[in-house]
């Protein structure tokens, strides 16, 4: 448990600009307290003292708002920013240097036994409110957008957004941990803008009675003028 102490403190200092020193992290950060308590509970769980481990886990939930099952495996440099509402299930496995935000759930999808919670690779960032549900792997370096609902495997170095989660970027390999939760692609917005522009072009063309730009128009063959000319030619 002690060998993780320095890494747990450094993870907060590296990824939270509000953290000023190690003493502040130890005294004021509920996520740090929750992770430290979990390491104790996990040791007890592995040594078959499961009731005591669960008691520690539930007391930690009451004090910090963070619920980590003592059976979950957590690697080095794990950081929970804010942390209220975080739930991590029994068979979840979390790699090194993982960052998650408040209200994240690493859960299961039913009453299956055995492995039923996700495996999170190294250097993954999971945005606020995201739900990762099921016994699959989120690959190293992946980023899960805020409020995304992920129900299937995520390849390494991918970005997932939406409900259900969709991969919108892949193989975007970065050496440093990217904590940006704002500048993520929005495929739904992009599609809506594309359709809106298309409708605007069609409305203009439907009212067109012929102009000097028709020959070079991107809507050539699809506008109102072209349709009228086709009908006229058929009559002839």
Task: Describe the secondary structure blueprint for this structure.
Elements (H helix, E strand, L loop, with lengths): L4 H11 L6 H7 L1 H17 L3 H15 L2 E2 L4 E2 L4 E2 L6 E2 L4 E2 L4 E2 L4 E3 L11 E2 L4 E2 L4 E3 L3 E2 L4 E2 L4 E2 L8 E3 L4 E4 L17 H20 L17 H12 L1
Parallel strand pairs: 1-4, 2-5, 3-6, 4-7, 5-8, 6-9, 7-10, 8-11, 9-12, 10-13, 12-14
Antiparallel strand pairs: 14-15
Textual characterization of the structure:
The chain is an alpha/beta fold and 236 residues long. It folds into two domains: 183 residues, UDP N-Acetylglucosamine Acyltransferase, domain 1; 48 residues, no CATH class. Helix content is 35%, strand content 15%. It has six helices and 15 strands. A hairpin with a 4-residue loop joins strand 14 and strand 15. Helix 3 runs antiparallel to helix 4. The longest helix has 20 residues. The relative contact order is 0.07. The model has no long low-confidence stretch (mean pLDDT 83).
């Amino acid at each position: 448990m002690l060998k993780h102490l320095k890494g747990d403190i450094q993870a907060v200092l590296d990824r939270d600009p509000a953290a000023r020193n190690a003493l502040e992290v130890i005294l004021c950060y509920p996520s740090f307290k929750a992770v430290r308590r979990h390491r104790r509970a996990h040791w007890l769980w592995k040594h078959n003292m499961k009731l005591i481990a669960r008691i520690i886990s539930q007391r930690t939930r009451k004090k910090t708002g963070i619920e980590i099952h003592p059976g979950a495996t957590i690697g080095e440099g794990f950081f929970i920013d804010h942390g209220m509402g975080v739930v991590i299930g029994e068979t979840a496995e979390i790699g090194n240097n993982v960052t998650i935000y408040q209200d994240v759930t690493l859960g299961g999808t039913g009453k299956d036994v055995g492995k039923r919670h996700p495996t999170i690779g190294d250097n993954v960032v999971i945005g606020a409110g995201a739900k990762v549900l099921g016994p699959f792997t989120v690959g190293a370096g992946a980023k899960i957008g805020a409020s995304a609902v992920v129900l299937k495997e995520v390849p390494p170095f991918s970005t997932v957004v939406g409900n259900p989660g969709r991969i919108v970027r892949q193989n975007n390999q970065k050496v440093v941990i990217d904590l940006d939760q704002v500048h993520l692609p929005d495929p739904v917005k992009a599609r809506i803008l594309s359709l809106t522009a298309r409708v605007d072009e069609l409305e203009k063309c439907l009212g067109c009675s012929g102009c000097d730009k028709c020959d070079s128009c991107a809507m050539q063959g699809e506008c109102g003028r072209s349709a009228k000319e086709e009908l006229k030619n058929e009559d002839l």
